[in-house]
Amino acid sequence: MKRNLKNKIAWVTGAGSGIGQNAAIKLSEMGMKVILSGRNLKNLKETSLKCTNENFIKICDITKKSSVKEVTLEIEREFKSIDILVNCAGMNIENRDWDIIDENDWDEVIQTNINGLFYCCRSVIPIMKKKNGWTNYKRIIMVRKPCKSIVRCFIYIFKTCTKCND
Which residues, 6+ apart, have CB-to-CB distance to 2 below 8 Å? Predict the structure, then answer.
């Protein structure tokens, strides 16, 4: 079943590169208004140029609750709703072996890939529920590569155990 996504609002975190950039471009091609978020303005501008529909850049560091809250409030003020959240922001580290992993690097991965994901989900759910409750268009999507590390496995488990109740 193909849904009409024209002018629906999608917020894509990690939209400056990789999966997030490709998701933003595809959603734009499907007619959605796309909010592009990430930490690198130059990369977000490049993504913006590749989008075919309206798009808006919102710098956001998902590791900081205050940044997520600020952007979420801006989106609500400007668009009144968020129909889809696509969580693509994430990071990895070079030295992932348990015997050599640096604790500070580990903390940064957890803060970005798990806490940041949580901050984004938690901030949009009340907005999604406000407008006529949950509808078929309200979705939270966590995009990650297959489980190659403990963090990715945790995210996969979180994704499969967390459902939006339509």
Answer: none
Please compute, for residue 121, the number of CA atoms within 13 A of its CA located in the half-sphere on the CB side.
19
**Averaged pLDDT in 10-residue chunks for the chain of 166 residues:** 79 94 93 96 97 97 97 95 89 82 90 92 87 56 50 41 39
Strand partners, 33: 9
- 149 alpha-carbon distance from chain centroid: 20
- In angstroms, what CA-CA distances link 144 with 9, 55, 78, 88, 131? 21, 23, 29, 7, 28
Domain ranges of the chain: 9-161
Which residues contact residue 111 at a Cβ distance below 8 angstroms, ignoring those fewer than 6 apart?
63
Q: Which CATH number fits domain 9-161: 3.40.50.720, 3.40.190.10, 3.40.50.80, 1.20.120.160?
A: 3.40.50.720
